[in-house]
Amino acid sequence: MSADTLATAKPAVELEGITKRFPGVVANHDIRITVEPGTVHAIVGENGAGKSTLMKILYGMQKPDEGTIRINGAEVSFRTPSDAIGVGIGMVHQHFMLADNLTVLENVILGAEPKKVGMLDTASARRRITELAESHGLRVDPDKLVEDLGVGDRQRVEILKVLYRGARILILDEPTAVLVPQEVEELFQNLRELKADGLTVIFISHKLDEVLGIADAITVIRRGTTVASVDPREVTARQLAELMVGSELPTPETRESTVTDVVTLRVAQVTMEADGYHAAADPAKLREEGKRLLLDDVSFEIHRGEILGIAGVEGNGQSELIEAIMGIRPAHGSIELDGQDISQWSTLKRRESGIGYIPEDRHRQGLLLEASLWENRVLGHQTRKPARSGIWINRRASKADTERIVKDYDVRTPGVDTLALALSGGNQQKLIVGREMSGEPRFLIAAHPTRGVDVGAQAAIWDHLRNARAAGLAVLLISADLDELIGLSDTLQVIYRGRLVAALDPSDITPDRLGGYMTGAIAGTEET
Amino acid sequence: MPAGLNRALLTVAGAVVAIVLAVAISSVAITAAGASPLDAFAAFFDFGATPRAVSNGIAAFLNRAVPLFIAGLAVAVGFRMNLFNIGVEGQYRLAAIVAAYVGSTFEAPAPIQIAVIIVVAAAVGGLYALIPAVMKVTRGVNEVIATIMLNYVAINIASYLVRGPFAGQRAAGQLTTTTPQLPESAMFPNLNFLFEGFGLLPPTRGGGLWGFLIVAIVLGVVIWVVLERTRFGFNVKASGLNGPAALASGVNPKTMVIAAMVLSGAIAGLIGLPEILGDKGAFNSNFTAGLGFLGIAVALLGRNKPVGIAVAALLFAFLDRAQGPLQIANVPPSVITIIQGVTVLLVVVANEVTTRLALRLEERRAAQQLSSKTPVEVAA
Hints:
By secondary structure, chain A is an alpha/beta fold. In chain A, 32% of the residues lie in helices and 25% in strands. Chain B is globular and about 75 Å long.
């Protein structure tokens, strides 16, 4: 427990025995957290550990099945977020909820507009915002359009919005996920000032070094329950990580190298403009003109039996790189599969030629949620056996092959006719992994393959990746989980602002140093 | 497959509730219009006093259902992909006049003559639907706006053609302009023998029971097979359920937009043929209008599935047939439109509710079956 508590003050937030069940799943189980007022309290845990559910409960978006919530000593029961706002809780969501075409001021007062004889009272709103901004060190120009603001500024607007509604307890859900390092430092400065003003901040994250840098107290959540409350001055990142993942956690070690010297995928000078593809554009010239590039001269090779890991803070070009390789979005440069130039091929042809793809967002790109499992097995394999039979879909063979995936990949489902949405995230992901491994792919893109899945599924997916690698598959692994990257990859590249800035050997790199490259704090000395 | 059966039962239950509610709401409207709901509903089931009138009533009912069914199919093919082909109206009218004209320019044995007319109609409808498809694919023009605008273009071209280039001989004393009369070999044989099979008198009005009913049934089966069993149908379904996932799986969204739109237009091209080949033998200025728009309602009501669309088309036709009896019963026939409108609205609402309910049940069922053997899992 935090050491610097004031003996007399009542805890700002006290959660006791919070349990939340979803059909067949326990998302939160007996959660106990005490947050002292005027502190930054971090809640850490892996993706899928139940942090988001907990925050939704605390913000009134979901009702707990069991347990009590006490705010400043008084027991409360929230039915909607307005109830939570009413007692002074404010939430800054991971994805900003701002209207781009309104000014900062308009965004802040939206939904809580001050009125004077029925008219919008902009003057008093402006006064209040300036006052809040100054007293908390949140500098923003209230008359700027939100669409002209950078990510860091937008986040400050979100915080202002919450403060404007009178919040004294702020929940920040993964606030640093979208920020570059300088912005993270600025955010932390803002948080320290808020703390100095007596506000309480609940900071949700899974980035350990950041948590250690800002938090006064840390609560660790694992598999839906609180496993420890620790003092950040007394733990190391390593210890915290162990608490987060638990000792039973399978480590993604693949030390025995299966890398051959046959190049499966060669990506050369892939460049992508931010403002749409122009076939005639010359990448070198674009660079000279200072055009914003989402991918800038990306080149790498992946050999048979090799896993190449791409590390990077999300939004530095990973999605664009995947889209370029899959042929979903046009880019300059060349992409070769087994010596064949595929850069002009359609997505379908690329898939047919043996590229598998585990998408980063399985609900958006990987599944037809309202279709059965066997139909999801067909997805992406419409033109190949066993799904295809002339112009027809071979339903019987597809179902049989889905049974195989269900069995081999341990997908827990009542049957192959069940709709995909009825499965838990981990089982959906196992189905996708099984599907993408079908048809003997030569090259696999695995984007965040274990995001939001439970530990058991994670271990299984890692096993499958390792086995496929041993069988000669070339894998491009993109992940936010540094342990996964370091443990699985044979080679590591770091992507930062659309460029590959460093090539590293995963056998002698620590998460700390990798983080340094990812955030641009260490310049790429080992650049290729 | 009990899961599928569950879903189907829920759907039917939802539709029944919606129709009962629609009848209740319509009763209020009829009462407000100063008529008796009981008289009105009696009129719907009043097929006539004499056996001949009953036969004619049944034939008129089925004849009305055929074009509605085809129109519903045309709209549904687009809807399946979240593509709103509002242009069915224009597509079928343009197709009808061109097919009627082309058919009148030559004479061949009946099967060939009819086949040519059908192919021409489908081609014209498909080509006319290609315009908004190309606009959407190349320039991102919203197909709703493009097809609505193209409806006006098509309707006016059709009325120009029937008066000008495609005009035929106008019989003395006739006020309507018309295309040249089709040769006898183009007329689709009627199905009046069915009535005799049921011991009824054959219908006499409007060309009897149109033989195009057979074509419509075959078309319905073919569309079902295409949508439910082929790769193309799978791609349509995938694109409709989740565009980004379809794209990532290698489905080319542009090709799909063009294919679905042209298929929709080609089906739409056939909407006018039952009337031309079964009764009128020409496209004239009295040609039945509005079937394309009704097709939207029919497709919505039928949940974009051929069987559902058939039921919806029969329901609409059943209501439409009562025009005459309602007037005789002193009920304003516009109550038909009220009932149709209310039914569509309520069924759409019911569909939404039952879909959600079905999905929720499915989730719960899966969770229950697994809860015994699954370790505690965690939702993000």
